[in-house]
Batch of 2 targets.
Target 1
Amino acid sequence: MNLYDLTVPQLLKMLHNADAWLVAATKHAEAKKFDVNHLMKARLAPDQFALDRQIQAMCDNAKFIAGRLTGKEWPAHPDTEAAFDQLRTRIAAVVSYLETFKPDDFAGAGDRKIVLPWMQDKWMTGDEYVAEFALPNFYFHAVTAYAILRHNGVELGKRDFLGNVPMHS
Amino acid sequence: MNLYDLTVPQLLKMLHNADAWLVAATKHAEAKKFDVNHLMKARLAPDQFALDRQIQAMCDNAKFIAGRLTGKEWPAHPDTEAAFDQLRTRIAAVVSYLETFKPDDFAGAGDRKIVLPWMQDKWMTGDEYVAEFALPNFYFHAVTAYAILRHNGVELGKRDFLGNVPMHS
């Protein structure tokens, strides 16, 4: 399986899904007459990232995956978002970045040496990075963001998490 | 990337990680002097699966992924677990099942037509199934189980979620 096919289209879909979760939360807040930005610092445990940081980490993981597997630069985002609309802008920026990639960019990506910031002089292959670090970590933050919203009463279901899945006939 | 490499070893690792989360919860309950099985029905939202069902779904997704991609039968598990030690036995059963697979079993898996129970006469390819349904769904239940435990004070961190990652030198 080509690492482009395994990553970029699915990351794009999940980012669009996450944007829709934020829209659903905004509608929920309007209906309940509270400021949706009260959810920015909602968290499931006091020593866990809040919603804002979960969305930021989800965005970062998506851009890191594409950038690291292809050896391309990624845009910097300083984690200054203080409101839902700014989180949505952050998501849109990463969507735009991911949309610049083509399958050919991922030639040889599976064998590329990936060095994460905390690995010092160690490395893993691109294949290992995708299977054992990148996707688990991306979904960790995506699911936690979704769970924080569900825990706070936002009406979301599994279909909102997954988005549309392929159906051929 | 071979679909075996992308799935079986990582699913096995995540199942072992989940078993360790249950052990950590048991130790936490002993220290706090409560029955760990009080956590079986803990959930993050009233209309979301509780911990027991999250672990069962994580186990089911793992066996479905290997079984569907290879066309092999999977063992039936009737979701009757009523205590933590039974959830651990369920995890161990799926670990044993996954350990029977070899990379050769996955020859042609990416092009295999996968029909999920709710798809009627539609289908997706094995590659699409892994990228857009199987892994997102597996991690959905894994992260939610982890989040329920974190929300209830069990001392876990990202490293417990990911487990060991490859480090070559």
Target 2
Amino acid sequence: MALSPISYDAGGRSFTGFLADGSEGLRVPGVLVIHEGGGLTDHAKGRAARLAELGYVAFAMDLFGSEVEPPAPGRPETMAKAQAVVRALREDVAELRARCAAALGVLRAHPHVDPARLAAIGFCFGGAAALELARSGAPLAAVAGFHAGVLPGSAEDDRAIGAKVLLCHGEQDPVVPASQIRDFTARLTEAGVDWQLHLYGGVGHSFTNIEIDAWNLPGFRYDEAADRRSWAALMQLFSEVF
Amino acid sequence: MALSPISYDAGGRSFTGFLADGSEGLRVPGVLVIHEGGGLTDHAKGRAARLAELGYVAFAMDLFGSEVEPPAPGRPETMAKAQAVVRALREDVAELRARCAAALGVLRAHPHVDPARLAAIGFCFGGAAALELARSGAPLAAVAGFHAGVLPGSAEDDRAIGAKVLLCHGEQDPVVPASQIRDFTARLTEAGVDWQLHLYGGVGHSFTNIEIDAWNLPGFRYDEAADRRSWAALMQLFSEVF
């Protein structure tokens, strides 16, 4: 499925995401895809393309901005730059939410997207971003985080989540320990949110991302079974809400 | 799908299970279905029928024996009797395993069952029983526990599990706290078992069993979303192994 670059602005900065349109001209659900801390690579673009093959319009948004080079293995300075952007966005949740909202706006405005049927999915830091979008009260039917981080937030933030939440997580994730996810889900219960947590035994961080293995990071590794299972869980959730 | 009663013996005691054959004469996977602590009712029989509609041969086994009357709401003495049997089986794991093995033998011997493709699923105490069957080294490709209990067992027991394990659990299960399930999954990781745990927010015990609401037990309640999601997870697991 072809991906089309779309440039858009947020807060005076320029971003370039990639849109895949599987609508065949109908009005279909729109899915925002938010990349890992490692940047907008073929991983998130590939998920957008896969969603389009299933009939959705999917937009692989850009969290970092057009001036940030995508990190590349063998060039650690590129990853250091991306990590600095992630740190800054963790500290400035309003900016993070604004970037996500701008990208959701691009998706909603697409002529083949039914604005009443929207979802956001995210990977790693992109999962935290998707959850922040939901916490901002964005009209999402579903939000899914794969090996997602979670930002602190308030109980009021949690109560603003109208989306059904799916979290797919590696039991041995060294970046986002399962205990941190459990603390978050306890908060979601308090807030009355419909949530599910799928934990995969013996699985680490970035389990959906085949690119991650080239980085040789301890505890980060692709896991074919967990990738397949978590994607199936997403499809099941979409079958509920769309 | 029609259910046929099958009587069989284990340890000198007589049992009656119900078999549903969806094979259409082919050799297909066989699924053992193990009922809740509340006995072999329409709940487990219904799951066997549903599996047969999907092309499996399914056997809703009898954990309690033909002389134990199925518990009925409004007749608390029948539940008390069933609970006494459950307590006895919890204390006598060898007997529990023997009853499951006998039922698995019935399933394996069925002419339409491929004995190389077997699974066991169980609900509540039946989930603990299914896990004990796996811990006994039974040749199961998959085992699933829905709002399942877990018996103590040894590390050696855990290492005997060759099946892929799926646990679907209510976050607010008052009978089997999620923390108990987490302790078990940590052991499964130690043992190198392929496992997944799906936790459902705000969901209690017996969430798959519509009959449970008639008992008015605190923290026991049917949950349509969790029932649907957990069944979909089972179907996904079966699509992996069969």
